[in-house]
Specification:
Layout (H helix, E strand, L loop, with lengths): L2 H14 L8 E5 L11 E7 L17 E7 L2 E7 L10 H4 L1 H9 L3 E10 L9 E8 L28 H14 L3 E8 L8 H10 L3 E3 L3 H9 L3 E11 L10 H10 L1 H14 L1
Parallel strand pairs: 1-4, 1-5, 5-9, 6-7, 7-8
Antiparallel strand pairs: 2-3, 3-4, 5-8, 6-9
Helix pairs in contact: 1-3, 4-8
Length: 273
């Protein structure tokens, strides 16, 4: 057994001492979107600091706890605040929470984030369904010894974001009256926002949105066989597209402005997955 898997089992045992709740769906909530977890039917919560060996988020707006409960009749675990690579953690710690939710029993994963729009057709407040991603700018979470208990050494990534769930999201957005963009998400390291040249590179690669999370979590989840979907909230236009100086306050304000629509969409998706 690898040391990474031993660490995961230690975390799982710590969770199981507090709850035996078994989720079907896992959600990771991005910047400014965490309040969604407060509005579900909550069974219990566990602070990250109460889980042995668990990394904790240091970003403002990220609460740092698991919320267990129900969206409709669907049992869910929500990660209210994620861990980022730019906080100084090794990539294996960044994706540890994702793997842990899979080990708790979740078979499906919804990833959300606040992202910069690299596609000039987008505008702040848009939702973009992630159809694919590019992670060239960050280390793969699968580098190093393979965790055989979770998945294969060389996992296929031809359909990271489930085509079935993409169809579900389109129908849900239509029912909610939400205009849905579709595109490719490019993950950079952060914590600095991208330069105009990096945004042009992302566009040249085929990227539509840029951010500092999500794709690494998707890779780890796909490695262990979860069915994945992702939605980016375009909170600002990326550097070089917008002439405005980028700041985290703008990200929070835009996320807050569209929070109601986001919550409606996520609820619709969860109950129809």
């Amino acid at each position: 057994m690898s040391k990474l898997y031993e660490k995961l089992e230690t975390c799982l045992a710590s969770v199981r001492q507090k709850t035996d709740f078994k989720p079907e769906v896992a959600l990771i909530l991005g910047s400014g979107l965490g309040d969604y977890a407060d509005e579900i039917k909550i069974e219990t919560t566990i602070d990250y600091t109460d889980i042995e060996g668990f990394p904790t988020s240091t970003v403002a707006g990220h609460k740092g706890r698991f919320v267990f409960g129900y969206v409709g009749n669907v049992p869910v675990v929500i990660m209210q605040g994620r861990v980022h690579y730019y906080e100084g953690y090794p990539m294996t710690d960044v994706v540890l929470p994702t793997r842990l939710m899979g080990m708790m029993g979740a078979k499906k994963l919804i990833l959300t984030n606040a992202a910069g729009g690299a596609n000039p057709e987008y505008k702040p407040g848009d939702f973009m369904m992630i159809t694919d991603h590019i992670t060239t700018g960050v280390p793969s979470p699968l580098i190093g010894e393979n965790i055989d208990e979770l998945g294969a050494r060389f996992p296929d990534m031809s359909e990271v974001y489930s085509l079935r769930l993409q169809d579900v999201i389109r129908k849900c957005a239509d029912r909610c009256g939400i205009r849905l963009q579709e595109g490719v998400y490019v993950q950079f390291t952060g914590p600095n926002y991208e330069t105009p040249a990096e945004v042009r590179l992302a566009q040249w690669w085929g990227g539509d949105a840029v951010g500092m999370s999500t794709a690494c979590e998707a890779m780890a989840a796909r490695h262990m066989g979860l069915e994945i979907c992702g939605i980016s909230c375009i909170t600002n236009m990326a550097a070089g597209i917008s002439k405005e100086e980028l700041n985290h306050k703008e990200v929070q304000e835009t996320a807050d402005r569209v929070a109601k629509s986001f919550k409606e969409l996520i609820t619709e998706i969860v109950v129809n997955m």
